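Narrative of activities, Objective 1.

The group set out to show that a structural description can be obtained from nothing but a protein's sequence at a throughput compatible with the screening campaign. Below is one input-output pair from the validation batch, recorded exactly as produced.
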Amino acid sequence: MERFLGKNKSMKTPKLLFIVSILFVLACTNPQNTEEKTAQKPVENTSAEPSTNPKYPNIPLAEKGITVVNPEGWKKETMEFHLNYCAEMLQKLDNVDAAKFCECFLSKIQYYYDPIYFKEAYEDQSKWNQECLAAASK
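Output recorded for this entry:
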């Protein structure tokens, strides 16, 4: 039994959470509703807000004001795994360039969230979600 739960168990949970979170994010972002919401919302002036973390100038500023988990970001192998996995999960979406979205979003959350908490990152950082979805729209 340990043979089946060893490495595989640790990889199944993040993969499942990642799939569920991506589907949740995409289900909540209907392009028609986004246009209506944008038209109804007053435009916020973000030019006064810094776009990077004052303590770490190379790191984007988190929307929720959370503290930095790892100022160096994820290890190269971890980032490559999540980039590939994310792109694989989103490749069937016709209106989103999966590689662009994954690169954009993961490059931001890598400093604030350990890889196992990417579901929380998608829920917490809606501004980054929207920016990356817009950048990845076909």
